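hey so i finally got around to running the thing on that chain from the lab meeting. sorry it took forever, my laptop kept dying and i had to restart like 3 times. anyway pasting the input first so we r on the same page abt which one it is
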Amino acid sequence: MPRMKFTKFKDYETKLRGDNGKTLNEQHIRLTRSLLLSSAYKDLGKNAIKLLNAMKIIARGEKEFNFSSSLGLIYLGLKKGNEKSVRKAITELEKHGFIRRIFFSNGGGHIPNKFEFISEWTKWNN
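ok and heres what got predicted. didnt touch it at all, straight out
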């Protein structure tokens, strides 16, 4: 396996320290030109785009990932009680073919929902 080269983030790409003063463990996501120029992506609302980016960070390059409404609230910058906005953005991502829910949790036992990234957005037509 080839050795991975570590490239530091530029100062305009990251906040070097968190609000608590600790060094942040930065991650990045891949946004391809075909995704950004697709009609499905262009039709997404701002909360759906924010959530898609957050899901890509949380998934860390994996196809399947866990995601809860409380995480959605954090990444959308909303307070508890606004879970409807998170659900609406998730539904939008599902309808546009970016994600599919593969496990639904009703919140019992605090088990998060499980999703997977899908490529149906490439065939999406409004």
